[in-house]
Amino acid sequence: MAAGYELPPNIAIITLQELEDQHTLLRLAHLYEVGESDKFSSIGRVDLQSLFSRRKIKEIVELNLSAVQNKSEMKSLDWQVEGEENTFIKPSKRNKIKDEEYIIELAPMEIRTFQLEFHD
User: Residue 25: exposed, middle, or buried by beta-carbon count in 10 A (0-12, 13-18, 19+)?
Assistant: First the structure.
């Protein structure tokens, strides 16, 4: 990890693990609830390339929380609110990772899991 880069104060690394297949597992968590803090209950942004500035990211894949399935392959469920007909709540679809732009956003109380591959 880079010596000069600091995570935002509302974000923590909860998993940083080298995997057997030359990949790295990274799990980030937002530490605050909505409304808990005027300052820190906002969206937090992490620049992964700055966080790992000594290495060049080759590929990044977002996984589900347990890190066993690619998040892009997951099926979203529609939830009907009890007592309201035809009202559905859909999970948010935010922050798709773009090539060469490794800035990750986390909403309050959100946890996101990534598999990183670095260039040799």
Answer: middle
